[in-house]
Design a protein that fits this description.
- This protein is α/β, with parallel strands linked by helices and 248 residues long.
- The chain is built from eleven helices and eleven strands.
- The longest helix has 16 residues, at 232-247.
- The chain starts with a strand and ends with a helix.
Amino acid sequence: MSILVTRPHPDNEATSESLRARGHVVLLAPVLKFEPVAFHDESETGYSAVIVTSANAIRGVAPQLQDLGLLELPLFAVGEHTAAAARDAGFAEVVVAGGDAAALRDKVMQGARDKRLKKKSTLLYLAGADLSRDLGGELGAEGFNVVTQTTYRMAPVKLLPRDVCEGFATHGIEAVLHYSRRSARAFLEAARDEGVEISALAIPQCCLSETVAGVLREAGASRVLVAATPDENALFDTLERALRTRLA
């Protein structure tokens, strides 16, 4: 029996390695494909800090970071995974939030209270093409000037791998891991197109957040579980709980 990981490449490789270390057999079905978007900033805005909600946003702009002069700025990352990507890219001062956009907003506001940032300073938000939350607007309402720059998009992958379709057909997949609302939707569309939607939704769907879980519930999934906190270790704990319950 296998665990299906729908996370895009390259993050799915690290997830797969961690799951195998826990004794699981893993199948990969990256249902979104990363596509960088060229960074164009023709203004001469002086930024006080960078905010990032995804490691992909850093990957998208990584070749330009040195020339743009952004590495000297403090960076506020949504969680530890994104923070690690920022450090790898060369950011020296990285502030880590609690794993979701609300926590990142609060961390930036805390930065203003701690005098790390000026309340009306300009922040550069490196973001994806499809935003599930208006983080820039929320920080703008708190007095910050937020400039949003799209550095990547995630394109849906229309087909599931053959071994994944066969796994659903033969009931060889125990659970599915979901990391974002967009990837959950892409997974559902691909499963529907492949004719395996009923089998796919009959097994536990383990989700990183309640926002992700809502997509699966609306689609009719019979068992949707949500991680206690929006991080991978908590998601793995949710997976183990789902498997124990299934075997009980």
